[in-house]
Amino acid sequence: MFYEIRALNAAGRCRLTVEAADEQAARAQARSQGYQVLAVRARAAQGGAWLKRGKGFPLVLFTRELMALLASGLPLTESLETLAEKEGREENRAVLNGVIRHLHEGERFSAAIAHAPQAFPPLYVSVVRAAEKTSDLSEALGRYVAYQEQVDGVRKKVVAAAVYPALLLLAGGLVALFLLGYVTPRFAGVYEGNLERLPWASRLLMDWGGMIQTHGLAALAVLIAVIALTVWGLRRPGARAWISRLLWRAPGLGERLRVFHLTRFYRTVGMLLSGGIPAVAALAMAEGLLHPELRVRLQGAARLIKEGQPLSAAMEARGLSTPVAARLLRVGEKSGRMGEMMESIARFHDEELARFVDWFTRLVEPVLMAVIGLVIGVIVVLLYLPIFELVGSLE
Question: How confident is the model at residue 73, as a pLDDT?
Fold first, then answer.
């Protein structure tokens, strides 16, 4: 879920958008970035923040172009001026000109982009801030681009897997409505005067068809109202939290959701650790990506780490690791490459989740087709059943 936060930082009042499991996690994530939170408001739709950012400021494209200019030898300020000059949209040019103005005033790049949280999320600012300490800005930006592309890739796989089943349901529903609203009333006219002799199921079908034909507009209005209320309810944070709890407790699916949350968490923490951010601070920054139940466990793990326990032991003790993750974390501690190991964990579980999504899609599609075929077949059989009985009686 995405939250809009009004906050204060060293530069003054600002707004930012964060992804978090609930309002408390959003506040904690903003505070970990050095913001003083004034107010928090949930966005209307979960994808709204990403959609707005994609339309308003193309962050990944900007980062790629900036990396190319820096690699060619241009200083940071000149690179930004070049990107501002070529920018076609006035809003994006204004963002870049604002960053350039702050750089000319002597601010660091991380502080300059922090003035535009609507374009540069807190995670991006943190990566840049950590890179300024080690003077590897291009490498840090490359890690962020790779991270964002991996996150977007997982999201696209899930969306693509849901498209075909949704189209099947839509097509099946339209065919069923056509049979009930157009074909069934015509058959009712054929059987007029003999409806009482029809089988009970056929009479019920004729009644439904007649009701849809007579009150078609009212039925359409009711359907639209139900869909609108459903969408409105799903946009409410409380309703989404309730659905999330149900899915979390579902056998089999709950474990997959836990692994999905942990995968996003490990990828984000791995990127932050590779950028030089301390482990406890990186855990706090990525806390909002976890489900509330896992977030409570993470807070306990952070306490264990502060008490001196290894990160792998703390994560395993609080149920925040898988067998693969536990082994790779121990390897990362011995080799000093914890960030790389966390990214390896995320890649491993991404492939595992991709296989599950593919298997689930292959299972759901034929089941949906069978259910839709069964519904349509039952309607057709009930329409022709009286004719079959009549032919049988004539024989």
Answer: 86
Beta bridge partners of 15: 6
CATH topology of domain 145-395: Receptor-associated Protein (1.20.81)
Q: What is the pLDDT of residue 20?
A: 64
pLDDT grade for 49, boundaries at 50, 70 and 90: very low
DSSP 197: G
Crossing angle of helices 216-234 and 237-249, in 10° steps, is 80
Q: Domain extents for the chain?
A: 2-144, 145-395
Summarize pLDDT for 149-158 with one digit per residue, the tens: 877 877 787 7
The CA–CA distances, whole Å, from 383 to 4, 97, 395 equal: 54, 69, 21
Burial of 251: CB neighbours in 10 Å, binned 0-12, 13-18, 19+:
exposed
| Across 278-301, average pLDDT | 81
Pairing of strands 12-19, 36-42: unpaired
CATH classification code of 2-144: 1.20.81.30
Place of tokens 């139940």: 293
The CA distance from 368 to 345, in Å, is 34
The stretch 293-300 carries a mean pLDDT of 84
- pLDDT average, residue stretch 352-374: 83
- Helix axes of 76-86 and 59-71: crossing angle, nearest 10 degrees: 130
User: Coil, helix or strand for 36?
Assistant: strand
